[in-house]
Design goal:
Elements lengths: L2 E2 L6 E3 L6 E4 L6 E2 L2 E2 L6 E4 L13 E6 L5 E2 L2 E2 L6 E5 L8 E4 L5 E2 L1
Antiparallel strand pairs: 1-12, 2-11, 3-6, 4-5, 7-10, 8-9
């Protein structure tokens, strides 16, 4: 069984609980009217945990994206994809709180 593909409207949180802004690199494929998300997109956490320590998330790196779904030759990101919030010590996984339910991939 497949898992829902992520799109720009998906709710992704860094390991500190701050939202991650997804900026699509190629908005050609739409899911629920919003660009589909790939590993090539800019994943920018709004992490400020704590602002004075410098220990905050700077990006999300997806380690296990979709194996069979590609968008513009880049792997799509699934709700179940494994990733890391990079920039913290130690890095940790992001949380996908919501995704569009209609399009599934593996």
């Amino acid at each position: 069984m497949g898992a829902p593909l992520l799109h720009v409207g998906a709710t992704v949180l860094c390991l500190h609980g701050f939202p991650v802004l997804i900026t699509p690199g190629s908005p050609r494929v739409l899911l629920s009217g919003m660009p589909a998300a790939t590993v090539a997109d800019a994943w920018l956490p709004a992490c400020t945990n704590p602002p004075s320590s410098g220990n905050k998330c700077t990006t999300v790196q997806w380690l296990a994206p979709a194996l069979r779904v590609r968008i513009g030759q880049m792997p799509a990101v699934l709700q179940t994809s494994a990733g890391l919030c990079v920039g913290t010590a130690p890095p940790g996984p992001p949380t996908v709180a919501s995704a569009q339910p209609r399009v599934l991939g593996t």
